[in-house]
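Next comes a single protein record:
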Amino acid sequence: MDAQLARRLIACNNEFYRHQAASFSATRQAPWQGWTRIAETAQALAEPEGPLRVLDVACGNLRFERFLAERMPTVELSCLAVDSTPELADDAPALRGVRTRTVDVLEALLNGHDPLDGTEAFDLTVCFGFLHHVPGEKLRHTLLDTLVRHTRAGGVIALSLWQFMNDPRLARKAEAAEAAMREQGFPVNALDAHDHFLGWQNSIQPVRYCHHFSESEVDALSARLTQLGAREIDRFSADGRSGTLNRYLICQVERPSRL
């Protein structure tokens, strides 16, 4: 994808979350069903001594951190929660062992910088509800490289990949938002395959840029992670009324990234 178009899509999403932080957070309070399986993996990573070091990229309102604290009450947690929109976490209750960092991960990567520079190696690295906002395969691969480099050997990376076009209601919303963007003169034809826009709640506007992940793309991401030294250990679907709205990809780092 053209870098200028990618920046335009990222700016679109940043504006959405800045202006809709309160309403978005209000609809994102309950944990996702798929996290239960990830918590089981995290429990196996916990050492008898020392905290479980967790990195959450695009943490939103810290609901995954709250979920872990409730699900693993006897495990000491040391979490770094990263997001470009601090307003999402403003109303979240204080959580012991959780520190936050405000950084635009995608802008840093586009500029050739490491948005996680200076952090330790983590036992569990998660990225939920974010990869569908990353425009272009190249930038998604760059993000994966960054996640692997900041996860220790033996640690685990857990990703959610949204498959919203499999849901008829969301597919209709995407079609309506795309038509509206086309009417406004946005170069919709320049988007990559499976790129879409979605309105918010019951309105076409404001829109978010979102990428739907086909199963072949999930395969490709898994292959990329294998190249980076992270082997797939689990893949499953969960979430939403259908139980299939998200595709989860879980990989274990076997060696540091060399790419």
Summary: Strands lie at 52-57, 77-83, 98-102, 122-127, 151-162, 195-200, 203-211, 230-238, 246-253. The radius of gyration is 18 Å. Residues 3-19 form the longest helix (17 residues).
